[in-house]
Amino acid sequence: MKIQPASSQPSNHIFTSFNDFFSSIGRKIELTGSRLGSFFPMLKLPLEQRIDRNISSLQPAQAAIANGDAKALKEAFDVFIHLPIWIWKSFATEIVKKDDLALLQILQNKLVDSPYLKTVQCHAFTEAVMREKQKLVCHLVKSGESPNHVFGNGETPLSYASRQQNPGLTLWLLKQGADVNKPVTGGWTPLMLWADVNDKAMVKSLMKFYDASGFAKNDNGMNTCQLAYSRGFYEIAAMLYQKGIPFK
Question: Among the residues of the chain, which ranges form H helices?
Fold first, then answer.
């Protein structure tokens, strides 16, 4: 038996065959007079056209998000079969802006069996952290996102919460296992960030979680005790010194 040489463009061959497969189903439906065509009309369309048709139907979902209508969003999502991942991520961004947990759960449920779920959920987590949406951050950590996630700029959820001077989220993340000792941009630790704004209560609270972060030095070569002293925050400097953090 003669073996045919492999195609020089296998990806194009596969893609063409994929479209031919659905087109042939459409032709068979028409030839046999089957009523399946009325139930699965999109099977007659090439993949690109099915995606385009979905994109043209985004308005109901966008309106549901704008109105905070979870029921309408679920109904709008139910008509989608194939959408590019960037559209799902854009939905996630708009939902986070609305700070609406019910809408976020609808999005997660829609993608629960999709390979897109993890990527879209991580995108929502990033948006929620940066936009200070504490309710959504907490929900997404409980959904599997790591409190020690390192973003593209080297920051972490804990460092963002500290820079935003959000004590509630900072302490909640610590209780979920966020690493208080991890230095971020500029070599700063969360303890340094709170010392830098002279928040004695938060410095005291973070000291309960820290291991050696007080000894870490930022890019200017100062540890937390030296930083507080240089800012004139002598009470914090004394507190840290008494805990064994060296001044020199």
Answer: 10-32, 36-39, 47-55, 59-67, 70-78, 85-98, 101-110, 117-130, 134-142, 157-163, 167-175, 190-195, 200-207, 224-230, 234-242
